[in-house]
Amino acid sequence: NGTEDEEGRQKIREEKDKSKELHAIKERYLGGVKKRRRTRHLNDRKFVFEWDASEDTSIDYNPLYKERHQVQLLGRGFIAGIDLKQQKREQSRFYGDLMEKRRTLEEKEQEEARLRKLRKKEAKQRWDDRHWSQKKLDEMTDRDWRIFREDYSITTKGGKIPNPIRSWKDSSLPPHILEVIDKCGYKEPTPIQRQAIPIGLQNRDIIGVAETGSGKTAAFLIPLLVWITTLPKIDR
């Protein structure tokens, strides 16, 4: 019988663990023949990679320590220093196993619907937590724009400031202007250009501060050229 064989193997493993635990206790408290550790000299440059087997705490034969109890806190309590999402998953698994034994069929169906809703919410959260470079322009949130400005060290002051441009193709510049920019070799806008151009396209006053060679002239001229192209032609 497969069940009896498994129980027999489990019993043998438990007896071996008890024997090893008893041997470890005797060595710890009654003493025993210990392998003398190699003494390191101060001028010895050779690194010693070996360690004493008694210092290995990764394996414990006592079931009390081998099968660690997971702390279950009341209410919304969490353990500091451990990932909150991981704690939520473990708590949800613990209470889920506990309630599974007490539920009726109708309650189980309700729980499955709740879990589907929770998985959908977590999937949406993971989707929203993507880096801004993986999102489309219309998917950007206020948090994404804040991270974008921090990535490019863009600091602004004022009211109703438009969002910076992520790339030339995301900007609202006319195609012929974009073509000239590409021919000039400007593959990506600089930080001052990312923020100053959208403000300039709104015909608003701006004071931009950036280091030499950061593209301030182009940040001023590009909105000016766009404005000039909107003026009516003068026929002479």
From TrEMBL:
**Keyword Nucleotide-binding among UniProt keywords:** yes
Stretches of the chain forming a coiled coil according to its record: 98-125
Q: Does the keyword Cell wall biogenesis/degradation apply?
A: no
Q: What is this protein called?
A: RNA helicase
UniProt keyword annotations, A-Z:
ATP-binding, Coiled coil, Helicase, Hydrolase, mRNA processing, Nucleotide-binding
Q: Which reaction does it catalyse?
A: ATP + H2O = ADP + phosphate + H(+)
Motif Q motif residues? 166-194
Residues of the DEAD-box RNA helicase Q domain: 166-194
What EC numbers are recorded for this enzyme? 3.6.4.13
A GO BP annotation = mRNA processing
What is this protein's gene name? Ddx23_1
GO MF, one term, reads: ATP binding
